[in-house]
Design goal:
Strands 2-1-3 form a three-stranded antiparallel β-sheet, with no helix packed on it. By secondary structure, the protein is mostly beta strands. The chain has no helices and three strands. A hairpin with a 5-residue loop joins β1 and β2.
C-alpha cells in the first residue's frame, strides 16, 4: 500500500493516507474526496540538498579546468 500526501480542496487540510488500489481517499477532517495529490519529500522529512558547483570546469573561468581554487 503506497503512502500519499494530499491537500483537501474543500477545507485545506493537508494529510497522508495509505491508499489501496480499490479505495478512494477522503479527507479525515471533512470527509471530502475532492483532493489534490501533493509532491512529497522523501521519508527523511528534509528538503533536498542544494546542488554544489562542479569541482573543476563547472564555473566557466576563463583559465579553464584547474584555474580556480577547486582545481
Amino acid at each position: 500500500m503506497p503512502l500519499y500526501e494530499y491537500a483537501c480542496q474543500e477545507c485545506g487540510q493537508h494529510f497522508e493516507a495509505l491508499v489501496r488500489s480499490d479505495t478512494i481517499p477522503e479527507c479525515p477532517h471533512c470527509h471530502s474526496t475532492t483532493l489534490e495529490k501533493q509532491l512529497s519529500v522523501f521519508a527523511t522529512g528534509k528538503s533536498a540538498p542544494e546542488a554544489q558547483p562542479s569541482p573543476c570546469a563547472g564555473c566557466g573561468r576563463a583559465g579553464g579546468p584547474g584555474s580556480c581554487a577547486f582545481g
